[in-house]
Predict the structure.
Amino acid sequence: MLSTCLVTGGAGFIGCALSGALADHFDRVVALDNLHPQVHPVRQRPAALDERVEFVLGDVTAASDWDDLLADVHPSTVIHLAAETGTGQSLTEASRHAKVNVVGTTEMLDAFVRHEKLPRKIVLTSSRAVYGEGAWVKGDGSVSYPGQRSRAMLQRGQWDFPELTPTPFRSDRVEPRPTSVYGSTKLAQEHILKSWCLAMDVSPVIFRLQNVYGPGQSLTNPYTGIVSLFAQKAKAGEVIPVYEDGDIVRDFVFIDDVAAAIVAGTFASQTGEFAYDIGSGEATTIMHLAEIAAAIYGAPQPEINGLFRDGDVRHASCSIEESKRALNWAPVVMVDEGVQRLCSWIDAGSQTVTP
């Protein structure tokens, strides 16, 4: 039987970045995507999607779209990228996030059963948001899970948890305790997929991605991350506003490194008990990120404004040592170089041909 890879959300940022490598390895690659206008202001096949990939316009939440697709496609491997993202947006559009991320996943699995076309492997891109604030350490070395920062804490400018020190996320050591609707739906995806795969003798591979950025990402979607936002403000000569006290920590991982990890997991990994944490392994403050962007364009010094977003975590970075070992993979592009590459792409006007 010919090897066929189905990529849900396959016309998005990560899907396009993966498309060439997948087309090199599979006999057939099919990208299913609904071309949501928040991500695709021009609702047409992206130029960045490899020409060898078959594109199918369809919605993962629609059973009829799955029936139409599976009448012609029997995937041996599925890469499940389709998802609604955005911590802040998920608080006001919780049903939309749950429908796509949770119901979209269950509709997919039901369709495989209904058509008797079970894949051998399903790769899921989950998120670091499943960890919430993660594990923090007390002065005596004991571990604490402080949970979500309350609005009262944030309103009085209490950004950290007193007498606690954050630790990097690591799936075999840190319990997932999401603090956002988005993170909760991604954790639900993980649980649903693992339960179904165990029963159906299908291999699940789960990635928990940190903050992905780089050439090819949407510059019009306000929920795809702050790297492109900061770059565009700096390019316009504007002062970059920095939330809280500037010491929010994130791990910004370059798109090429994410694509390489997913490809490695698709072809080389064995089903494991734990998810693969995928990041740069480099913890970066939001102020430092803003300073990098400002320096590239000679923009004014970024300014701390003391504002905050409900549901945001204070510290999000990860340990990638287990992922590096298991996948024979390592990130190559660190944040200083990655932001420069993103800015060069923006300057070249490439975003006009890659929605």
